[in-house]
Fold this sequence. Notes:
The chain has a 4-stranded antiparallel β-sheet. A 3-stranded antiparallel β-sheet has the order 2-1-3. It contains 19 helices and 33 strands. The protein is of the alpha+beta class.
Amino acid sequence: MSKTARKSLLFYLISTILIFFFSLSLAEGKTSTGSQRGYCCINGQIISLSQLQCRQKKGQYFASRDDAKKNCKPADVFCCIDGKVKKESVEQCRKDGGKGYKTEADAKRKCKPAEVFCCIDGKVKKESAEQCRKNRGEGYKTEADAKRKCKPADVFCCVDGKVKKSAVEQCRKDGGKGYKTEADAKRKCRPAIVFCCINGKIKKSDVVKCRRDRGKAYKTETDAKRNCKPANVFCCVDGIVKKGPAEQCRRKRGKGYKNEGEAKRNCKSAEGYCCVNGKVKKESVEECKRHKGTFYTNALEARGKCQTDDGPSPNYNTTPTNKLGVSRPRADIRKRILPDLDIIRTSTNRKCFMKIHVQNIGGPINATDHAAAKMHLSAGPSQVSNKTNLIQIDPLGKLRVPGGSIIYTTNMRVTEPSQMSLSWIDTAHNILESDESNNGDDALLACKLSFVWCCVNGKVGKATKEECRKGGGDCPYE
């Protein structure tokens, strides 16, 4: 081998050895650097790791703690809160009670509204927080918490036209209707319409008026008809108390009382005519018994039958005569002593209104009896008046004087070609008369006018064509 070749071989060997040791040294340096511990930032948190470990955990490595604190920030996530996704830090998402996702797609796919136990008007049900807010409810995380704290909301309750604040359940129990605001309640609250039973008669009215009239209210007409009966009263008639319907008591001209004790305490015998020792005077049954007299309901009967202990009461001559020598009946002399009201005639005026001609063909009437007497009138079944005071018909007292008479025109109108009428004076027998058989008159009244059905302001009644037009009415039913 030549000298040049040996030198080349030696140079190659030495170079190879040097390169080998240099590579080994470099590898050792790298290994020592990778194993050195520093500070790794992972999702905003700083932990002590080697550079290699930090890289494996996909963190950011810092050689010094100060650098790590200065530069380490929490990584943003896609946070799901009540079904809504928004980007924010992990720490903030945790504080908001949300759940974080790395990608937006993952968050939108998995994010659902959180369910709560929602309290609405005292009732608890499970639904989303968003839905609970829309329903104006209050959400609770646990069912136990919801049931403990959930109370019915107060409403403004309308009961029988009156507004008061109460719970929903209480309002329902009271049969009322609840409103959220007081203004709404006051505007819409009206008394409920019911079928009101008063003394066996049913009429439609509101609850308040029915209560004021001392009636009983029913929700349906069927219920009212089934249960509505005439109210029973303790009826006083001629000093005797009997229990019966109020209507029947009125027909018997009695006075009704609610309880038996009050009836017995106040019930006095009706006044009639008592004969004591040949004298007749107005007294009750009890007073007449106390005076040991004979009681009569009719004045004429009392006068005719009343006798003294010595014999019959003084009587009139059977056939008395006047100055001309003409005989006259016994009753004529009696009429001079006692009053005698006579309905001379019942007729109609030109406009077909019923009128009555009454005359006193007997003696004078005292003011007390004249004020107490009443008159009953009717012109057909649809026109029956309440009993009218005689003083109202005869305000000047003309009938108090013997021979006095009045013509009284009523507000009752005969609208048919012929119509029955009834006139009866002193129905309660307040005036002591010599003859009561002429106190009434049943007359068939006739009218020559032609009447039509007239409509004025929504009300229909009978009138002549001329009256209908003058009143601004319409007469389509001629």
